[in-house]
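Q: Hi! First time asking for a complex rather than a single chain. Here are the components, and I think there are two in total. Is that enough to go on?
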Amino acid sequence: MNRSCMTLAAGLAVVVSGAVARDIPKSPRDIKFKELVFEPPAPSQFRHQLSNGVPVYMAVSHEVPLVTITLSFKGGEYLEPGDKAGLASITGQMMRQGGTTTVPPKELDERFDFMAARVSASIGDRTAQASINCLTANLDEAFALFMDMVRNPGFDTGRLEVLRGQELEDIKTRNDNGLQIALRELGFLMWGQDHFEARQPTRASIESITPEDMKALHDRIFNPANLMIAVTGDFEEKDMIAFLDKAMAGWAKGQAVPEVPAPTQAYEPGVYYYEKDQNQVQVLIGERGIRRDDKDAVAVDVMNGILGGSGFTSRITNRVRTEEGLAYTAGSTFSNRVEYPGMFISYFFTKTPTTALATRLVFDEIGKIQKTEVTTEELETIQNSLIETFPRNFESKNAMMNLFISDERTGRDPSYWRNYRKMVRDVTPEDVQRVANDHLNPDDTVVVVVGPWEQIQKGNVASEPDPKRQATMEEFGAARQIPPRDPETLQPAKP
Amino acid sequence: MTRFLPVAAATLALASSAALAQQVEPIEFKLDNGMTFLLLPRDEQPNIITAGWIAPTGSTHEHPGITGVSHLLEHLLFKGTDTVGTTDADLDRQYRAQLTELREKMRAVTLDVQYRRFLNGEIENPWDPEVDTPELRDLRAQMSALQDKQREITVKNEFDKIYTGNGASGMNAGTSNDFTVFYINLPSNKLELWAWMESDRLMNPSFRELDAERFVVIEERRQRLESTPTGMLDERFDSMFWIASTYSWPVIGWMSDLMAYTEDEITEYFETNYQPANLTGVIVGDFDPADARQLIESYFGRLINKRPPPAPVVTHEVPMMGTLRFSGECDCQDQIEVRYHAVAAGTPDQAPLELLAAILNGRTGRLYKSMIEDKGLAASARAGSDTQRYAGSFSFVATPKGKTELETIEKAWYAEVNKLKNEPVSDNELQKVKNQAAADAFRDLQNNSNLFFQLAISEAWGGWEYLNEYPKLIQQVTPEDIQRVARKYLGDDNKGVAVYHRKQGSELVLLTLDDVKSSLPAEMLPVIMPQLEAQLDELKTATDAEELRQALAQMEQQSAMMPPQFKTMMDYVKQEINLRITEIEGGAQ
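A: Yes, that's all I need. Here is the structure of the assembled complex.
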């Protein structure tokens, strides 16, 4: 493959100096900006197809002599058998660590490392990836070795025991970090302990994993029927298709994986606490969210930008952090899902006595955005932000190719990005209020609190001179205790 | 923290051709007021700019009593300016003056009455509102009322909103021991907005909401340090490791100091360290440099140096003269760190120390091979070379696997060190890490913010030209250099050792079958285990909770007669029965 030279050197640019000083406007709002014209690139410009039908998205850049190839597969944790939680993650890691059927793991690692190739393999909740980034000069050799790893992983038993040992050490620490506990328990309560979104490995499930389990899962996911490829960097487009076709030779197309299963459990709203001795309390307030392709998705995104999703510009952050100084981290987020409604979470971390006050402030803000229209100024700030940062979605070629792949895999409306800015611009204050009422339901939330409950409950009455700011946890109704769990089995531990 | 940009040509032993030498060549100029600028136009990321500025000022320039002030100031510089952030600049100034007065009163009372109570052992934290005296509580209420009034004319987070509404993103700042840096990503037509906003906050910053922000920083301290598994112990170990150096206090500051800064102290610190002659601005991305220079001269040319330049850092670190040991307990995995005094950034031994760490790390590195794979002692093990502006360290950190003692891992580390001192590393090992450094050189060029940070930090530490120099130094390192630095720095009279153990009884842990096995005499295992496992299988299908409760009661009665070596086994069986009862009765999940 060819390598081409690039110059980062700007030293030759002619720089005018001593030019006439500009008039400085009194307010930044009076600055006149040149218009920036940007149209999102069409995926079809980058899309190709291999002879076995596998889609390839590619974009050339000769800035540095590196090539990145990412194989992206449909299939993930949701395919694990119920008693093998952790199998997907371990299989992904073992593909990278366990050698191939003909190259022992140590040799594979030495060869990749000596070529300075960065190689990874991983299986996530819904998708799996294997990717290589290497110098153009080494591409032929490194990519051949990489494809051997992807197609014929060795799952070396010695390496499996090393990894298993590390995973077993890791699960011992699952109760050390309050946020980790809060996220785990919120997941259990909202999705159910057995749904793949929330499921957690245990000592028993990790101990039960065998090379045969890994091979079976590997064979279901890693085949051309589930595959799409992204190529970026320093290569020639005309050579790449033939190069990849050759790498696919003899690879049976295989079967496409089944669809992602929806959760079946309804959740029970209320306040739940997990006892932990720490001097900062984590609070997560969760409820059912929306689908990615919901007709209100863009309006919801705008609404959440005003409520708690855009950092300092949003209301929850302003109220809890800036005005009251109760937290360093406070905000809200909609995590949408393609297959079923996702989750809406508001969150903050605060000192023990002010947990109740901060909880009240968050619920106040949710109530306010439902009861009163937002101001045009707030709305325009968020709209401008979403519209003006829009080009960033297409900033890096690698991220852009992977965005197109994800869109194709999940069947996103092809006109989505073209119309995105108009959809944002069309959101009105009435829309914001309507979607806040349709999609936020403060009476139907799960509030997870991790910390020393006895003190949390009492609130800030002892330290707060201002009666308007005094709060205890009583105002949120009866609270239920989540029994402390043994970190390795996650079973409730008996005192 | 230290990430230099290696750019030079590398001799790749296996690669068919040598990588091209690439130099980063920003346009450099200095304004009349002494502020330096580096401009690097780059069109690979169209329509986007990363812009920011750096002050070579961090916690190392503080002193006891004002530790953490650099970081608090970083927060305060987002509060707006005299005009941005308020609807009534005059009234706002009046409120701020009144607040300052109240704050001074509260500070005086606290340092007198509350500190005395603290020294007498009556209260744990003199700054805690929960132990306010009636006088303090009254002052606090006055302050709160005044802040509510000020809030009526405050435009909340206006500084952020102006940027956000203009499509800027990733606005942030960072404070380290050695520098403070402010940066943002902008659409390429908005460079003038950046020049307006940044020059305004450097000229007319307003520390409004100072009191609320103190509490935000305290929450940040709790979040980052105090409620993380090892945060508190790490802070203590750092503080012990640096003996004389000003690296010995945490960047975020000691809790007592966070509550105590006066507005005058903050202002003086700002005016000294953030005057233009001490600053460097950096812009990377899709922009026209001639246009940018004109903007810069108009906007940043207005800044004035008001005070004498900041005092240089005088106190340097002293030799350790022995081994310092620190041990503590936390809600964490057992962990060991061995840390040595090493070298500052930009000094000749930086390159060999970085390669030495690389030879130890990764799955083809020495630590994985010996400690993790072959001997199975550790679950994780890694080395690191940390070079800062005024000093540096070399460290080894590991967590054990299973029941391995930390002492065993510590000894295994010293064995690795001895090997490094006694035998030169192989040519192959060294070439591998040089190849990786050369490839990483290109990787680090691939985005605006990477380039921004490398230019800003290396310039703050003495000159961006080092970015182009350092990769050459890396490729010149020999096996003898590695051996030399191992001998020079990894000595017993030059180290601190931190040993962390999981706090006992801090949580309830279930017994496992392995615990039972290891508690029983080996010769009894073949007899007992099959029986036990059969019983456990039976238990899995039990459906009558009452029957199980009776079994438990029976076991309680028998327990007095049980030989002590069966205690763990009996506890395990009781635990399993209890769990089954919970399961049958559909108890809490």
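A: Chain B touches chain A through 128 residues (CB under 8 Å). Let me know if you'd like any chain examined more closely.
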